Amino acid sequence: MNPMTIFVTPKQRGYTLLEFAVVVVVVGVLAAVLLDRMAYYQVQAERVSLQTTVANLRSTLQIRLEQAKLPGGSLDLTMLAEENPFTWLKSKPVNYAGEYYSPSDAQIGAGNWCFDRSDKSVVYLLNNSETFSGPKTMRLKFKVKLLHLLNTSGAVGTGAGPVVGIDIEQVKA
Predict the structure, then answer these.
(1) For 107, how many CA atoms within 13 A lie in the half-sphere containing its CB?
(2) CB burial of residue 113 (10 Å; 0-12, 13-18, 19+)
(3) Which of 42, 64, 90, 121 is positioned for an S-S bond with 143, CB 3.0–4.6 A?
């Protein structure tokens, strides 16, 4: 007989039903953990994407403000507050849906940005309501706000007085 021949006994033919059940349970637990982690990372990715877009809009706003302060530069800040901030970007985000008058959620689409011409605000429709804690709203609004000098002590706010700056703030949707 050849020494390389392997003898197979009836017990060595395959897995028992118990072994198969254990493997199925282990694979199920691993799949559940994987799906939970994927959902977590999707929420985190949406949060970072939203924060990055707002930061980009703020940066371009500050650049435009500083350009207006240069010699020979003239820019009416009140007009800047009326503009669509996405027009300031070199390239718009891939999830920018465009400009609308009082857009519905269906027009915007989940995970997309738009500019609402009716109240001059930037709107983002969340993919997941768990992206941010707090009120469970799916629509986030941001608006360009003028910063005014409030009094002689130099306090800055959004009230009356001369315009000293500009910023993008989140407003109630």
Answers:
(1) 11
(2) buried
(3) 121
What contacts 24+ positions apart, CB below 8 Å, involve 107-113?
A: 110/138, 111/46, 113/53, 113/86
Long-range Cβ contacts of 27-34 (<8 Å, 24+ apart): none
Digit-coded pLDDT (tens) for 24-58 = 999 999 999 999 999 899 889 999 999 999 999 99
Would you tell me how many other CB atoms lie within 10 Å of the CB of residue 99? 13
The whole-model pTM stands at 0.72
Give the dihedral sign, CA 11/15/21/27.
positive
Burial grade of 21 (CB within 10 A; 0-12, 13-18, 19 or more): exposed
Answer for the pair 90, 60: CB distance below 8 angstroms, yes or no.
Answer: no
Using one digit for the tens of pLDDT, what is the confidence trace for 78-109?
777 888 999 988 889 999 999 999 999 889 98
Which amino acid appears at position 142 of this protein? F
Tell me which residue of 115, 169, 173, 168 sits closest to 140, measured CA to CA: 173
